[in-house]
UniProtKB/TrEMBL annotation:
This is ATP-, maltotriose-and DNA-dependent transcriptional regulator MalT. SUPFAM superfamilies: C-terminal effector domain of the bipartite response regulators (SSF46894), P-loop containing nucleoside triphosphate hydrolases (SSF52540). GO terms for biological process: regulation of DNA-templated transcription. Keywords: DNA-binding, Transcription, Transcription regulation. It comes from Flavimobilis marinus. It comes from the Bacteria. Residues 759-824 form the HTH luxR-type domain. The lineage of its organism: Bacteria, Bacillati, Actinomycetota, Actinomycetes, Micrococcales.
């Protein structure tokens, strides 16, 4: 059966799709773009090397001749005769008879390619009929026609011979095709590399071959090839001349700066042009892709074509190029894509507009588009950078942050925010004490830029806090303070000092944090301006955080009454975590578990908040332990990925609280033997280890761990960490641990009447066998069902159930399963049978 232009042939690989040549193949591209190149590529991929190929172009047509058809037949006969010369003149009466005789004598296939057939023979209906007859009668004759319009040859030929009609888009290569084609050039491509080539070229066979051949030619022996995406430039510039539809070149040029096109945009750009015809031609040629988005059609040039066209437009008409780039940037910004807008302006060299968008969209750019700043800033001239404090900060800070080697998850700082020091969750990664905050070369900038820098650096510091880049944040605040002091700007000095104190609290360096907070208060005394309410609230919170960390009198309400909502972004969750820690110290935990549960559900749907969501889960564990919900806390921990050390701290703490002291000690010892450079993590682990060793009756080991903890606590002034150890344990070890007495006295001065966590009980720990019985009970709903499932007697099941009832405080199977669901010990779906 003949194939239409829209048909796709079965298998994914090109050689499998087109391995069997048809007597008649029509390669039709309305735009004329690349038909001959695609035909050559198709022939190389599908025709055996031993087959003969005759190629006739439009230059052999008979335009102006008395008999154009005879000129065509004469050229074809001459080429066929060159392949297998005939003896004598063959007795031919005409060139047409010569072609028929030469084809009938063939004993092996010959492929005749008619390039630009629509231009070859004027009034070619007679030639169409003759070629169709030859296809029907000559067994070894294969005809490949490159044309841009439907002809009688296609219609009539399809009715009598096996034929195939293809457009260039129908020959697009898949990644598997590219891998196979590369192997023919001794190139080993990964699936990712092949996918990248397809994305760049749209699978255009000729362009793919050019890239692969160039990449193979430049590869050194023994080295892995580097894919040369730019190798297709010369090919694209040659193929550019094959555009045949009037105005199509101009259409591609004018739309090349836009990553996507819609009908509304085209109406705005070209109200007087028939864009539908251009789009149809480009889609048929495989040079454009289409998708549906938001109820409308979206068109995209192939990346390779778009890049080449934009380069050509910039060279030929730079003013028009800049005009279109400005329009594209405005459209990016209108949909909130500020990074795309900036990239478009930098590409066009529109420097005034670059300065304007960086200053107007600074917060969005550094918070969400740092990767774009990293990519485009090197292209901004220094003379332009010097005109803006924002660009100076972007160059000297944003790029530095982006170029730092990526840390694995377990080396990430846990979070940014004003109240993070309450969390006790800072992990390994960087020795902040080694950071030297010195501004670099700012004397070379104008007074206006220098005075603007402190504010910009403080904004960048806040963004670094939210991005959990605490070293970067500390450097920004320190530099902002130094520049503000030199410029005699007390308001900015105050703000920068408070930011540095906040970050040092997060790191756990309470001593330095206190010193920077004193600088804040000193600057506040010199600044007579009205202090913004938000700054007052942050300062009050940091003051109370420092007081609590040092076990000095503090006002819990300052933190517990903080107004929090999700409009604050990451600070909303950070503030909630801090409230949790203060509530644990004061015992005012009512209602907080519901808030944390809601926060966990919200963060679970935000892929950008994976780290913050994990920390919320750890805070939930602490709160559950304080409420005596030990099994539920352990179930939460077991569902967390152990990539953050904060998760491992929560695991050790929940193991201790559920009476599994050996497991708690094992976690602590394993982490303490590893790379744990921050005092906060070491102190948290030593607290769990001391309490667990004491619970096991190993007094000497408990005192040793407590001695190490006291040393760390004194050095960091993090006395609040002692509250994680039961008061009875501290009092019992006081005589064995020098320095523990004064620490206990600090706790006594706060008049706290409760322990942060209830004393652990062995009864809160289900054995593995009891867990199996509980899960089987939820599935089967009866004692007999459990016995059958576990291959034990009913008496054994009843014994296990009595122990489970005692540990969970329940009195029936139904109540026990419900409580197990609440604690997260079994899945709610599993328990559905018992509730029926």
């Amino acid at each position: 059966m003949p194939r239409s232009a829209g048909d796709r042939l079965g298998d994914s690989r090109l050689l499998q799709r087109l391995a069997r040549p048809r007597p008649l193949t029509i390669l039709r591209a309305p735009s004329g773009f690349g038909k001959s190149s695609i035909a050559a590529q198709w022939l190389r991929a599908t025709v055996a090397d031993t087959a003969d190929v005759v190629w006739l172009g439009a230059d052999v047509g008979g335009w102006g001749a008395d008999d154009p058809a005879e000129v065509f037949w004469g050229a074809l006969a001459s080429r066929l005769d060159e392949l297998e010369p005939s003896e004598g003149d063959g007795g031919w009466g005409s060139a047409r008879e010569a072609v028929a005789d030469l084809l009938s004598r063939r004993t092996s296939p010959v492929f005749v390619v008619l390039d630009r057939y629509s231009q070859m023979v004027p009034g070619r209906s007679e030639v169409d009929r003759a070629l169709t007859e030859l296809l029907h009668t000559c067994e070894h004759f294969y005809l490949v026609v490159c044309t841009r319009e439907v002809s009688s040859l296609e219609v009539v030929g399809a009715a009598i011979v096996d034929s195939l009609v293809l457009r260039p888009a129908d020959l697009a290569l898949t990644p598997d095709d590219v891998v196979a084609l590369a192997a023919r050039h001794d190139l080993a491509l990964t699936a990712t590399e092949a996918q990248a080539i397809c994305a760049h070229t749209g699978g255009w066979p000729a362009l793919v071959r050019v890239i692969l051949v160039s990449s193979a030619a430049e590869r050194q022996e023994g080295d892995r090839a580097t894919i040369r995406f730019d190798a297709g430039t010369w090919f694209l510039r040659t193929a550019w001349q094959e555009f045949e539809i009037a105005g199509l070149q101009e259409f591609v040029l004018d739309t090349s700066v836009f990553p996507s096109l819609t009908e509304a945009l085209l109406d705005e750009l070209m109200p007087d042009r028939d864009c539908a015809a251009y789009l149809d031609a480009l889609l048929a040629a495989g040079l454009m892709q289409i998708e549906h988005s938001g109820g409308e059609q979206v068109y995209r040039h192939l990346p390779a074509v778009r890049l080449e066209a934009a380069t050509r437009l910039r060279e030929q008409d730079p003013d028009r190029y800049q005009e279109l780039c400005l329009l594209a940037a405005r459209r990016h910004e209108a949909v909130g894509d500020h990074g795309g807008a900036l990239a478009q302006l930098v590409t066009a060299g529109l420097w005034p507009e670059v300065l304007e968008i960086v200053e107007r969209r600074w917060t969005a750019l550094v918070t969400h588009e740092a990767h774009t700043l990293e990519r485009v800033l090197p292209a901004v001239p220094d003379v332009v950078v010097a005109q803006s404090a924002y660009l100076v900060a972007a160059r000297d800070y944003v790029l530095d942050a982006a170029q730092e080697p990526a840390r694995p998850w377990h080396h990430e700082h846990p979070l940014g925010g004003v109240l993070g020091p309450m969390l006790g969750l800072i992990t390994a990664g960087t020795d902040v004490s080694e950071i030297q905050g010195r501004p670099r070369g700012y004397d070379a900038f104008t007074e206006t830029v220098r005075r603007a820098l402190p504010g910009v650096l403080c904004e960048w510091g806040v963004s670094r806090v939210l991005a959990v880049d605490l070293p970067g944040a500390l450097r920004s605040f320190r530099d902002a303070h130094q520049v503000a002091e030199l410029a005699q700007m007390p308001a900015m000095s105050r703000r920068a000092a408070l930011g540095a104190a906040m970050v040092l609290c997060l790191v756990g360096d309470v001593r330095d944090a206190h010193a920077w907070f004193e600088r804040y208060e000193s600057a506040a005394a010199r600044d007579h301006e009205v202090v913004p309410p938000l700054l007052v609230g942050v300062a009050d919170a940091v003051r109370e955080v420092l007081g609590l960390s040092r076990l000095e009198p503090f006002q819990a309400n300052v933190i517990l009454d903080l107004p929090l909502d999700r409009s604050l972004g990451g600070l909303w969750a950070v503030g909630l975590l801090a409230k949790t820690q203060v509530a644990l110290v004061t015992g005012r935990v009512a209602g907080l578990l519901d808030e944390l549960d809601a926060a966990a559900r919200h963060l679970a749907h935000d892929s950008d908040s994976q780290l913050l969501g994990t920390l919320v889960a750890c805070a939930r564990v602490d709160l559950m332990l304080s409420l005596g919900q030990h099994l539920r806390a352990r179930a939460v921990v077991e569902r967390l990925s152990p990539t953050l050390q904060s998760v491992e701290v929560a695991r050790a703490r929940s193991a201790w609280a559920t009476g599994n002291h050996a497991a708690a000690i094992e976690v602590c010892q394993r982490l303490l033997r590893g790379d744990v450079p921050t005092a906060r993590v070491r102190i948290s682990l030593l607290a769990v280890q001391a309490a667990s060793e004491h619970a096991r009756g190993r007094r000497a080991e408990a005192a040793r761990a407590m001695q190490m903890m006291i040393h760390e606590v004194d050095a960091a002034e993090m006395y609040a960490s002692l509250l994680y150890v039961p008061r009875a344990v501290l009092l019992d070890l006081e005589g064995d641990v020098p320095g523990l007495g004064p620490a206990i006295a600090r706790i006594a001065r706060l008049n706290l009447e409760h322990d942060m966590f209830p004393a652990p009980s062995a009864q809160t720990e289900l054995s593995e066998r009891e867990r199996e019985v509980l899960a089987a009970l939820a599935r089967t709903g009866s004692v007999n069902g459990v016995a059958t499932a576990l291959f034990v007697t009913t008496n054994t099941v009843k014994t296990h159930l009595r122990s489970i009832y005692r540990k969970l405080g329940t009195h029936s199977a139904r109540e026990t399963v419900q409580r197990a669901v609440e604690f997260g010990l079994i899945d709610e779906v599993v328990s559905a049978r018992l509730s029926m």
